[in-house]
From TrEMBL:
InterPro entries: DUF2254_membrane. The chain crosses the membrane at residues 20-40, 66-90, 111-132, 144-164. This is DUF2254 domain-containing protein. Keywords: Membrane, Transmembrane, Transmembrane helix. It comes from the Bacteria. It holds the Pfam family DUF2254.
Amino acid sequence: MKDKLLKLLYKAYNLKDKIAFFPSIIAIAGAIFAYIMMYLENKGISKYILEFLPELVINDTETARAILTTFIGGLISIMVFSFSMVMILLNQASSNFSPRLLPGLISNRRHQIILGIYLFTIIYCIFILVFIEPSGKKYQLPGFSVLLSIFFMVNSLAAFIYFIHSISQEIQINNILYNIFSSSENRLKKIIEKEKEIDSSKPNSNNWTTYNAKSSGYFNTISTETLLHIAKENNIKIEIVSNKGSYCNEDAILFKVDKKIDNSIIEKIYSNFNFSKSELIDDNYLLAFKQITEVAVKSMSPGINDPGTAINAIDYLSQLFILRVQKQDIDLVQEKNTILIILNSVNFKDLIYNVMAPLRTYCTHDVIIVRKLLVLLENLKKKATLNTYKEVVNNEIDLLLKDAEREIANKNDFNKLKEYISNSNKN
């Protein structure tokens, strides 16, 4: 029962990234609030306010209907325009930058809330309009509710103005890159801080019992706290073999356990793995390296030819790599100085190769971009504390110079690149 509840909570948590989640919640709130106002109107709230503050109550049926009808039609037009602007943003980001950016743009919380404000006001106005009855001697027009619709309309117009400002900012590649970088940076810093608390080494898991994945998909998240509780409760150690964020095929080795355990415990461990068909940076910082690299490569394509964007992307990659070299290739979770959970991730060698390989393929013809990449690698070599990391960086420098020598026609440009490397090594 607890395992099913955890899965339901995870699915509910993922709903927040869907474009329709918050608008739906706010729209339901609009319907509920309209019914509350209907109840208050039946209790005579408009009649009561009319006696003390008549200027706050609209007491003409035709005026009220005209106001509500105008609000409904106008807001529907505004909502259609806003939705069209979002589609333009997504189409431009996909064609000019990278299709992988779309999930992050769709899950923009501010735009979801603005869409919800529109729906709230439209639904509220529709219900109040239906509530207005033909005039009669004993009938009191819901004037106070109509007055609130004016307030909600003004609020919607303010949200629309903010939306225009926000969408103009979101469409800029600098802001897109910064948002990707910021999410990954925060995630990396948290991991590095946790790693500093570990004072034990990784146990040997070669002879541990292996268990395969039951389904395929992107291995996005895992509940380490629940796994830690299972490990302590059953006196076992667990190693997560599959890399977080990678695509896990069915029947591939998913995790290992240091001893044989009951099937009920195995099922509890399986229930803590969450697979999906998409990737999010909040769940996996490695996706930021992939997205920023794709933006840099796409910007250097003949159809776009935007070296400035590539340089900005490389700057962000440089900052992320400087953080990454402060981290080990594995994550360890301990309890009372005993390692209970081992989390494998993409090692530094594979990570930097996956970033540099496409950049070397598409960008080595541009001497400015090559120099920028050399600056990145040289800074990384200075920041690296492990000799293995430094060896990996030196290897990438050699590969970059070889590709640059082949692609750069002007020998003087290439000699300046070699001169930069020589001066950096002397310093």
